[in-house]
Amino acid sequence: MAVSIDSSTFPFASVSPIFTSLPASSGSLADTQSQQDGFTSKISSLGKLVGLFETLQDSITALTSTDSEFKDFSLSNFDDALSISVDSSATNGDYHIGIERLASNHILQSKTFSDKDAIVGTGSLYIKVGSADTEVIEINSSQNTLTRIKDAINNSSADLTAGLLEQGNGIGLILTSSNSGQDNKIAINMVDTDGNNYDLLGLSSLSFKDLITNLEQTKDGINALYSVDDAVQNTNSNSDSSIIDNVSLTLNDAGVSTSNTLTIEDANQDILIDKLNNFIGAYNDVNNELSSLTNSSGNLNDDVILKAIKTELNDTPGYTYNDTSLRDIGLKFDSNSNLASLDINTLNYNIDNELSTITEALNAFSTSIGTKVTSYTDTLLPARETEFQTDLTETKIEEVKNTKVQRAIYAYTKTSLLGLQSPIFR
């Protein structure tokens, strides 16, 4: 489309063909430059806002916690012999722990065979582990090799694992109970199709029950033996959560004397206070920036998306999470929907008496607001920035058009007033 030039202002416009070939322009050069400044400012504001939201997201992630974070424990002289997990309800104090021995799994090993495909025999295996029901495994002529007997045992419901162990003079079958302790020992009886259920020939070479011990016991299934203060424990497992309330113990090594001490005490409550203060600061920075951008003098005051984000963000802290509000926990709000401060007395009371309640509420709140903030930083705000980038590009194109128009008018007017013909019209 040609540019319309007022011939009363530019009397030569009506006689020059240049004005019929100039690109269309929608405004003055000053207008397009002003528009560019506006879009550049909006893009910069969105970039700053995204950065503030990312800081807020970090503080939200840090709010997620478990009760155990609010208990401290220390171990003296244990090295790696003991692992501890402490719940917030654990009773403070010193506990003297000694570890005499660890529980072990029952392990049996067969005689050696020439190779993994050597024939063992056929018949019926009766496998019993601890007090579990006896598992019957039929071994026919298609399953009578060392490897296939191993597979048949592993495919059964028996509570043990079969493997092959290579030795210098051949390979043997090795059986290991799935669980440790004397209550999980392995017993194997059978009916051997060769008619002898007790010798070392055929399937009976795998017998291990009562006086028939054709398998070698390489490790007995024994209980752990340890003590906490004056209480001696004899358990199938190396893990125990019953002897000290709300404390889980895992024994890793034996030979630890009772002079070793576990100390449990309350954690520093400043940990949660610092997390909440960081969140309050980050939340208020975002809220204040949104207010500044969308108020009557802000450069995004007509942006409905940012206004919707601000409304949703301000509403979120007011909801309840697992029937607990942020006000119940000890957070205060001001008239501008800012999180003003912490009520330390309320928060400390909740840590002492309602720790599980407030950690569950904060975890639920973190998930809710964190999901929303992710949608802002990953989707809504980048899309808005892309729109402004497109608008900025279009105004730059318009600026080029306006520049061409003004240069052409200037050149033609100058040469006409001098009584000269401009070279550009030749």
Describe the model.
The chain is an alpha+beta fold. The chain folds into 3 domains: about 15-65 and about 270-415; about 80-105 and about 225-260, no CATH class; about 105-220, no CATH class. The chain has 7 helices and 21 strands. The protein has helices at about 30-65, 145-155, 270-295, 305-315, 325-330, 345-355, 355-415; strands at about 70-75, 80-85, 95-100, 105-110, 125-130, 135-140, 160-165, 170-180, 185-190, 210, 210-215, 215-220, 225-230, 230-235, 240, 245-250, 260-265, 320, 325, 330-335, 340. It has a 5-stranded antiparallel sheet with strand order 1-17-3-13-14, with no helix packed on it. It has a 4-stranded antiparallel sheet with strand order 7-8-4-12. It has a 3-stranded antiparallel sheet with strand order 2-16-15, with no helix packed on it. Helix 1 packs antiparallel against helix 7 and helix 6 (about 345-355) packs across helix 7 (about 355-415). It is elongated, with a radius of gyration of 41 Å. About 25% of the residues are buried.
